[in-house]
Structure formats: C-alpha cells, structure tokens
Amino acid sequence: MSINHNLLVEVAVSGMFYGTPLVFASVGEVITERSGVLNLGVEGMMLMGAAAGSWASIHISGSNPWVLFCATIIGAAAAALVALLHAFLVVTLRVNQIVAGLALTIFAGGAGLSSFLANSWNLAAKPAPHQFQELSVFGWKNAPIIGPLLFHHNVMVYFSWIVVGATSWYLFRTRAGLHLRSVGESPHTADAMGLNVARIRYVNTMVGGALAGVGGVYFSLLIVPTWVDGMTQGRGWIALALVIFGFWRPGLAMIGAYLFGAFASLGLTLQARNVHISPDLLDALPYLMTIVVLIIVSNSGARKRLGAPAALGQPFIRDER
Amino acid sequence: MRSIAFERRTNTPKWLRIAVPMFGIAIALVLGAMLLAWTGHATTGTYRQILHRGFTDPGTFATTLVAATPLLFTGLTAAIAYRMGVFNIGGEGQLFIGAMFASFVGLGLGSAPTVVVVASMILAGAVGGSLWASIAAVLRDRFRCNEIITTLMLNYLAGILIQYLIFSSHSYWRELTGTGALFPQGRMLSERAQWPNPHIGGTPVPFGFIVGISFAVLIFVLLRSTRFGYRVRVIADAPAAAKYAGINARRTTFAVLALSGAMAGIGGASDVGDFRHTLDPKGLQQAGYGYTGIVVAALGRLNPIAVVFVAILMGGLNTAGLALQGPDFPAGLVGTLQGLLLFCTLGGEGLARYRIVIRRRAGSASRSAAPRSSSPRSAASPTEAPGLATGEVGG
After folding, report:
1. Shortest CB distance from A96 goes to which of B89, B153, B390?
2. For residue B333, which residues of chain A lie inside 8 Å, CB to CB?
C-alpha cells in the first residue's frame, strides 16, 4: 500500500470532495451577510441551482467541458434569480429577513419549486449525461501525499479555491469590498458617503445566491449525480453555520467546510476499510460537531472582535435612525 | 426629476389589513397559474382539482382535518416562539421526540382506560417536545448559540434518533415478531390507546385537532391577557424597556421555548394516537410538519386563532397534493404554492406598512414636505406580529 492510501490522506481528500459544495455556499453567504443581508434560503437556492444544472446537462449539446461550463452558469443564474426575490422582499419591501429566508427555503426547497420544476422536466429519470471528472494536474496525481491532496481533484475544487481567494481579495483589498462591508456595518454612514445601499445589497445578495447555485450544481452533476428531490440534504443550513464558524471570513469558512466534509464522509471511508462503527452515530456526527463548534465559536472571546456585521439583518430606511 | 420613496405609515387603515392579504393571495394564485402554464400544465383545471380534492368533495374534509392536525400544532410552535423573536425552527425534531415519548407511554399503558392513556400520551408528548426545545434554550442562554442553527441541527439528530430506535436497534418501540421480523417497523398501539374520533356535524374530527384548538385558544388568552403574555410582548417589542422594568428575559425565553416545543411534542403524540398508531420515522420525516408549520404561523400572522384556519387551508392543500400527485400534478407544486402565498402576503404586509410617495427631487414644496409625525411604532396589539413584516432581527 502506498502512502496515498493512508487513512489521514483519504479522510482529507474526501473531506475536500464533500466539503466543496459547502465552500461555494458558505462563501456566497459570507458575501451576502457582509452586506447586511441575512439569507436563510441557502438550501432552496442550492436546490434551484442543482435542478437548473441538471436540466442544462441534459438539454445542452456539445463537448463535455462546454456543457459543464454552461450548466454551472445556468445553475448559478437560477439560484441568483431566487436570491433576487429575497433581495426584493427584504431590501425593497423590508420584510423581516429571517421570515423571508425561511419562506425562500420552503418556496424553492426540496418540497417546493425545485422539485416541481425537476419533475415537470423529468430530470429524475436519468443520470446526468455530463458529469465532472477528476483531473490529474501536471500528471502528478500519484505524487506522495501532495498528489491526492492537491493535484487529483475535479475542476470544481480548483474553481472553489479561486473563488475563496478572489472573495478574500474582493472583501478586504478592493474599494468595492470596502463599500460592501461599510453597507453591512453601518448603512447610514455608507448612505451619507453617497453609496447606494439598496443596490449594493441587491448585487451581493445575488452574488451569494449564484455561488450557492454552483454548490447545488456540484450535487446534481458530481456527488449524486442525477436529480433527487431535496438532494442537498440540509447542506444549505450547514453552510449558514459555517459562516458563523468562519467569523464571516472566506478562508475560515473553507476550513470549516472541509472539516464538515471529512466528518460527513468518515462513515464511507471507514466502511471501505472494514471498520465498523454504528452508521447512525456516524450520520449524527456532522450535526453534533456543528453544534459543538457553534458552542466554541459563540462563546469565545474572539467573537467580539471578529463578530457579525453590525447591521446584519436590519433593514435600511433612510429617514429613520 | 422625480423619485419614489417609501414613507412609513403612522397607522394602517382597517380596510388595508383585510385588502392586503386578499390581494396577496390573488397575486400568488396568478403567479402560480403562470408557472403552471409555463411548464405546460392546465391552470384553472389544476386549481379546480385542488379545491375539489382538498375541500369540497364529500368525505375529503375529514382527511383534510387529519392533515391539518399536526400543522396546527407546529404552527402554534412557530407562532409562540416567533412572537417573542425566538426563531425556533425545530418544530420538526420536537415533534419527532414528542411522538417517541408518547408512543412509549401509549405502548406501556396499553390496557389502561382510554382516558388515562390519551391524557398520559399528551403529557408525554409535551414533555418530550419541550425537553428537546430546552436543549436549544440552554445553548442559547449559556453559550449564546444562534437558535436557528441549533434547532435545525437538533431536527436532524432527532430524525436519526427515532430512525435508530426502529431500524438499527432492538428497542422498546420496535416490532420484532410477525412481519416485524422481516421488515423493521414500530410496534402498534393497542386499540384502547388509539385516540377517539368524535363526529361533529357528520364529519369525524381527530381528537388531536380538538386538543389543538383548545391550546390555540389558551395561548391566545395567555398572550393577550396574562402577565406572562405581557412580558413576552415587552421583550419582543422593546427589549430595553423590558430590562429597565426588571423583566427576567432569560426565564421568559426558557418558558416560551419550552411551551413552543411542548406544542410540537403534542403534535407528535397526536400523530401516533390519531393517525399512525405507531412510531414511524420514515413517514414523519417525509411529512415535514415542522417546516410547513412555519408557513402556517407566518400566514396566520402569528395569531394562534388564525393559525387554526390556516392549518386547515394548508392541510387541504397537502391532502389535494397527495391525492393528485402524478404527471399532471408533479410533486413540489403544493410547496411552491405555499411559498408563493407566503411571499405575496409577506410582501404585501411589508408594502402596507409604507406609503409609496412620488416626490420631486429638487426640494420644492412637494407633498412630502408636509409635516409628518415622527412616527413612533404604534403600540402593537397583543396578538399581532409587529416584527414579522419589518423591523430588526433579534440578536
């Protein structure tokens, strides 16, 4: 057995594989929440992305990479449209963000629009004809340890790294990111500076939705890969917990996503090695871990310094302070 | 140059309070029809079928009441908690644990008189549900954990727990003889432990539904005219005032979450006693009562009495959805319609709080320059939800 079949390496690799959709969704939610909008509808947006991506992979013809590219874009666009609905409700109509987000999940979620559209389009009948495959970057997939960890993933994993890097740069190194954060921290100040609070919140809510949609495409064209109602199995909610875990920072959210992915896939990994642990306990582990991590994060002294955007969840009404 | 601005209404006229939800429902139905047409389904035909199979066909109303019963309880679960700004979305898990506790008692007391069994099952369900909700309450109180996330994680854990009891253990709940030796399933309650179905006006009404209505009335009174209800309202609407008045917000939050969980737990007890007569993890998880309860509470504007009627409406929609499911009526249509209803009424409610004013930009004497009262948030009436459509999200 080569060193690449080491248990630690396998757990890390599957953690990355199963954590990647959470990276997209939680980084998207970081962007949205940084602008002061809480969108609890991540699960619904992911499922819309999954359904639209699955539709595209069946109905678009062309080479494999082209179809997958289009499917990802279409999945992202579908989820962004759903996010637009949320933005309209909470930014323009000032509906309570928690209630609107819950409504969004019920509307688009596993028993809602995503299921309705997928069943109307008959997506469940067949496996996706185009699916993402593992690459061997530079042909180094068998290199000891770093091969499986860095050079033997599907293209979405690499894309998620770009997204994390670009988001960090956008949030903390660009003027647009500064504007975005100021809208999330103090919309009245931002408004006085001449920023268009509503527009910034609209745009970033939709960007967050688009990334959640990419996370959904990962399910319907990679993990499952066909349509199943409610196929994301609550991962959208985990993404919301990861935002808190990651102190509203993309890099930390990614680490959290990989940890969750590792816990969620531990059962499969151990089963392949004939280690028998109660499958129910393993199923429960990621949810238990999320609670434990939330306890640690919520209680630590770091929370004050690194906490949530100050105006998170609050509507902006110019004439009222 | 003209611009459109929103101006907060100082008082909402009465006609608007009726007209806005009606208008919202109409818009939702139109949007739903557009969606149906776009996906190549019959529009008015589908609506007519829903109306028939959910409400007007002879005999279906009894089924609708059965479907409405758990939604009534989970609707109350959400309504109580949200009224105080505590976002318990754990109705689902609290209902599972309530069903687990109630079936334990129901199986154990199988030969006792029906009155004793039913009362014990209700009590057991309430205890189970509020215990499960208390976990989230402790986490919120001691560790400042966001209850939205914790109650949600607890839903999954409760689902895994009841699944373990029936599918991967030889627990007290599991049937091990007969067909149970072949397929994992729960033990059935004895006939005496099954809840009665009194006939009212020729329609069999699940006993749980009557219990639910009683609780709705009780909670309405509790929130409206007791000291406890007053505290809940002050904490929700003016946390700072509550602090100065010396109201113990921690204790009240605990009580509200426990009561909220107890409602879901009784919903679980009713599911076992009225409907399935066994602990059925798969059936419970597929039904999604807890999440639909959130829709029920929001559409009922967190008013316990309104929750009863909305639960019947949603129960009818679900019944129709199950009866009609097929190529002409794909799964997910009911959820989509529920979501549209929710969006449109929420949006309408948000809109009704503001007056749309078109004003000229260049500060000339326009209408909006007229003196406006500084619009303090009008004292909220006891059972209506000021925080639902607008306002800040409690930390």
Report:
1. B390
2. 116
